Amino acid sequence: MRTEFCALSVVLDGACSIHDGCYTDAKNDFDTLKTQVESGANERKKFFRAASLAIAHLEFLVGESNTDVVDEVNTSRYHISVPDIAAQQACEITQPVWKEFLVPSMCEAGCYEHHSQYSPINMQGQEQTTEASIGACQHRCRLVDGCQHFSYQSGGGGCHLQDGDASKVSDENAVSGPPFCVGRLVTGDEGTNVCPDGSSKLTTQAACEVALSELGLTFRYPISNSSYPSGCHGFSMGDSIGGAYLNTGYFNSDAVGSGMAQRRPICLRSQAAQ
Fold it and tell me: What is the enclosing helix (H) or strand (E) of 24?
């Protein structure tokens, strides 16, 4: 129940962010198309007006008209009326009323790190956005290739994304975390073989298979190889990797393996850290 609840909570927190982003993208496309259509219509009006004046002048020159003056040219046939796009409707999704008595704040405590953020504040190609919740900021991180951390300003809703080069720093008004966490599951940084503070590696293949399933990943294979990171690791958890490894993970029973690119350790937050 715990895992299912936390997964639902994250989805609900991120739903309005997706709604707002879709509307913004659609409106930008509409505005661009509207400008192009109106520009084309205005060019046609100019051409029709110029052609009417030229014809009147020719008729005057060949004697078919006693004047080359043209009354106001009617270009209404080339007028295109483009309707305004519908106003954005407010997205309001309330967490289920049973959240508080189920286990208060259980998802946040097992994943988010309060009073901290990552520096540099924005990864390359990303700027601050304003998000409605911590979960919405985390969801944004999951959608950006290479995002390994997010930082959320609890005062104004500022959401920042960071890659693996960022370092954690103290900030009383911020909350930070990884792109994925479900209940007590938390992921470490890509390319490392180290679990976040307060968590530990999964020690069995069975536990790894369950964890991968809860994170929406497929267990690929068990191995025992000192060249690979030890423990439970997932591919493509917000990272860029393709082919057969996409959305999969594995368990390495070897206790020596070090970190490797495009792999994240999947760890279990201790009860004390909850």
Answer: helix 2-61
Residue 75 has a CB neighbour count (10 Å cut-off) of 16
Judged by DSSP in three states, 160 sits in: strand
- CATH for 161: 3.50.4.10
User: Under DSSP, is residue 128 helix (H, G, I), strand (E, B) or coil?
Assistant: coil
User: 41: which residues sit within 8 A by CB, 6+ positions away?
Assistant: 78, 79, 80
Q: Residue 194 is encoded by which pair of tokens?
A: 């180290």
Separation of alpha carbons 200 and 266, rounded Å? 9
Residue type, 85: I
Number of domains the chain contains: 3
Residues 128-150 have a mean pLDDT of 83
One domain, residues 190 and 265: yes
Residue 68 lies in a domain: yes
Predicted confidence (pLDDT) at residue 97 exceeds the cutoff of 80:
no
Edge to edge, what strands does the sheet with 158-162 contain?
113-119, 167-177, 149-153, 158-162, 129-130
Residues 237 and 264 sit within 8 Å (Cβ to Cβ): yes
Kindly report the number of other CB atoms within 10 A of residue 125's CB atom. Answer: 10
- Asked if residue 4 has pLDDT above 60, the reply is no
Beta strand 185-187 with 129-130: parallel, antiparallel or unpaired? unpaired
Output phi, psi for 182, to 5 deg: -130, 115
Q: Is the pLDDT of residue 11 over 90?
A: no
**pLDDT, tens only, 12-69:** 655 666 677 777 888 888 888 888 888 888 888 888 888 888 888 888 888 888 888 7
93, part of any domain: no
d(CA 151, CA 97): 27
Of 78, 97, 132, which residue is a domain's last?
78
